[in-house]
Amino acid sequence: MQELGMAEQGSIRVSRKDDNVVVIEKDLATEEMLLSMGPQHPSTHGVLKLECMTDGEVVTSAEPYLGYLHRCFEKHCEVVDYPGIVPYTDRMDYLTGMNNEWAYCIAVEKLLDIEIPRRVEFIRVMVSELNRIASHLVAIGTYGIDLGAFTPFLFCFRDREHILNLLEWASGARMLYNYVWIGGVAFDIPADFNKRVKEFVDYFRPKVVELYKLLTENEIFVKRTKGIGIMPADVAINYAWSGPMLRGSGVKWDLRRNDPYSVYPELDFNVPVPDGKFSDVGDCLSRHLVRALEMEESLNIIEQCISKMPGSEGFNPRSAVPKRVRPKAGEVYARAENPRGELGFYIQSDGKTTKPLRCKARSSCFVNLSAMKDLSKGQLIPDLVAIIGSIDIVLGEVDR
Amino acid sequence: MSIAAISQIRLPFLMGNNLNAWSDALAGLTLSWFPLGLVIIAAIPLVFIALYALTYGVYGERKISAFMQDRLGPMEVGKWGILQTLADILKLLQKEDIVPTSADKFLFVVGPGILFVGSFLAFAVLPFSPAFIGANLNVGLFYAIGIVALEVVGILAAGWGSNNKWSLYGAVRSVAQIVSYEIPAAIALLCGAMMAGTLDMQQINVLQSGPYGFAHFYLFQSPIAWLPFLIYFIASLAETNRAPFDIPEAESELVAGYFTEYSGMKFAVIFLAEYGSMFMVSAIISIVFLGGWNSPLPNLGSVALYDWTSGPVWGAFWIISKGFFFIFVQMWLRWTLPRLRVDQLMYLCWKVLTPFAFISFVLTAIWEIYVP
Amino acid sequence: MEEGRVLPQSVQQSAAAYAVIREQFGSAVSDFDANETMPFFEVLEAAKWPDIALFMRDHPKLKFNYMACLSGVDYQAEEQLGIVCNLESLGEFPHRIAVKVKCPRDGGSIPTAAYVWHTANWHEREAYDMFGMQFTGHPDLRRILCPEDWEGFPLRKDYRVQESYHGIKVPY
Description:
The structure holds 3 protein chains of 3 kinds.
Chain A: E1 12-16, E2 22-26, E3 33-37, E4 49-55, E5 58-65, H1 73-77, H2 86-90, H3 97-112, H4 118-146, H5 151-171, E6 180-181, E7 184-185, H6 193-216, H7 219-225, H8 233-238, H9 244-248, H10 255-258, H11 284-308, E8 330-338, E9 341-349, E10 358-362, H12 364-369, H13 372-375, E11 379-380, H14 381-391, H15 395-399
Antiparallel strand pairs in A: 1-2, 3-4, 4-5, 5-11, 6-7, 8-9, 9-10
Helix pairs in contact in A: 3-4, 4-5, 4-11, 4-14, 5-6, 6-11, 11-14
Chain B: H1 21-27, H2 36-68, H3 84-93, H4 105-121, E1 127-129, E2 132-133, H5 140-147, H6 150-161, H7 165-196, H8 201-206, H9 226-239, H10 251-254, H11 264-290, E3 299-300, E4 303-304, H12 305-308, H13 312-336, H14 342-370
Antiparallel strand pairs in B: 1-2, 3-4
Helix pairs in contact in B: 1-2, 2-3, 2-11, 2-13, 3-11, 4-6, 4-11, 6-7, 7-9, 7-14, 9-11, 9-14, 11-13
Chain C: H1 9-25, E1 40-43, H2 49-58, E2 66-75, E3 80-88, E4 96-104, E5 109-111, H3 120-131, E6 134-136, E7 164-165, E8 168-169
Parallel strand pairs in C: 1-4, 5-6
Antiparallel strand pairs in C: 2-3, 3-4, 7-8
């Protein structure tokens, strides 16, 4: 008899009936078809259920249902001590392990008020930018496959293999690194690492151009993505979009420039914001363009890191890593610019234990996906696929 | 070239001077009352489809796509993976034949059958060689264009019978696409028929024979022939549901479109139908515009390349090679281009290809009438 | 605040923003906590939270148009639940601030900010899902991460996981 009741939004009602059975009722208008792009689907980038009400090929509403990959990250944080949370952060957005760990470490280091050695900062920047390129390659490749272009996907993954080999050389793992620790990094980079990274940068620059010609400038691709899913800038800010999504809508906001952390103030790079010449501002093509252009900027950043990094004589990567992480009582909200947006951590510490009292991960994909319902009204089904691909979600981060 | 000139064309190595000598001879072969010869005539293209789909179709596609994507493709089974398709067929043969309980059983089972029959029936009028054509209809081209429409029934049956919304979506899209693109395809082929003056497939090939090899092909016989050639090629991509027109089987949107629910041998039949129709449209375009079984090599003085490479067996070789070349181009396009959206596909058909097909029709007519 | 200690510039900017809010709403908001890691103030009268939110978003000197994060918190000792909102002004001003709103543990409710910042919609759904506080006026308050018929609120400190779910044994 207890009414769970508050879900009375239009056509969906959740209530608990007499025999303790929960009933979820949906009204189906005539002529509309309820189409479930269910958890298993080749193009929803993970286990996401999109319930679409369609009128022919036109989607009247597409509501995302989450939680299929929820692994209770925040509850784990309350029973694991601060350094032990780092592998958990890897597994949220598993394509950007280094960036996730770094965002978390920034937050804890703010609470602890530690000073990080300069070489550590440069190593962190370099591996994060490498990871950014790897993540954008996946985003671009899978976006191509969603729209039917099979070949760019394989080219992207071929190049991503090189990055994964480099990161495996540095940290020991291809994808879930546990490398960026609170106060430092786990290991120093190997002796020839900078040389190999430079070789990769030189190898990859022409590949970016090739990818551009194959996919981004392809007439059919442009027709499929231009003018689709336009999000005006002020609505995007209200939905708290960040990263390439926000820049695709024309807002020049990049945390590496506007709220800088680490050694980014010393590095020279551009923040690409589409101006509406090649694409419409705020559409899927703009968002894709931002990712494609950001890869080149990351290459520039990596080259500067190689040249500016201090030498490794007498360097201990764990010199500033505290033996026991017990921050004073307080709370912090700190964030980093992940390839998908702003990954923020709200950490509350009670000053007495080595475990956080509350650790909330503000995930970029979760917030970016929340606009899906409004963005998809009135679109066709293939456009829905184009929009989801341009939002570039990773369900690990959406569900945590 | 007028029809009266046919008798002056040399057809070496034939029994008498009779076109379709082999198929006529086979048609007369009976075993008491049983028309054995007719069965053999029908079986030859069937065996050809099966063999070609097995080897060049599936294996070729996998290897070609692999090399384009900077990887190797099948390498394990047999040297360079040659036996891969055989392994796949063996696997498919012993799979459980699943019919979903809520599916419409009759339509579900009959759908792939109709699909295959529709694409296979067109092989009856394809001249595989100067001596062999299944059925020498004097309206062969008209028949070939029309019989492909039978596929539509098969697709609808498969899509509806699967009792799956995604299959239905795929089937409906596919039907709209095939029916729409038949129009520019037919008009473009009519331009070729205009240049030949006949709808008979064997005669169209004969009229493109000559000692100058490729110079007699209709593609080079008229300054406007490249336009219907191009239009028919694009329309044929849409007819066979190949990328960039593969919305009906868009893997990333509809899982597999109208054949989502099929597994095992039925799936193999649908695939055979698709590769069969790929060869069919490639053969039709080579017959009408590129000379069919004629050798493209010209006679250069005493080096009589054309004479050396003509004949019943050489003819089969040429038409099959030309067919395979166009199939290669189809595969090339599939792995390079993204997919067009349904409304863009329809726009392309009705607002671009059809008007240009009409224009090329008029221009070809003008060329044929006023230029001797 | 200790006298004589110079606050970092970011905290000073937040304090200036707070002053504008304090001037408008007086005792509905608490004093400003000027710590360096996350300067915040608390909304003491929860019913006024939507008005404060709208004021913060639209006032020409504040323009907090970007809600970076809305976290649910369980204050076990005080028997209260709460939310912590991190707000920022994107492209207009450099100030940032955090706002806390609390409510009683059992049956407590906080008015929704979903009509002021659209992003709060999903954040509040997650806070409800994990902690159980009601958000009055929310357009679609139902669970987002847990299944719709899950029992209990997982991130509460006294949460005990249910024994079985649809016949599946839950405790690991």
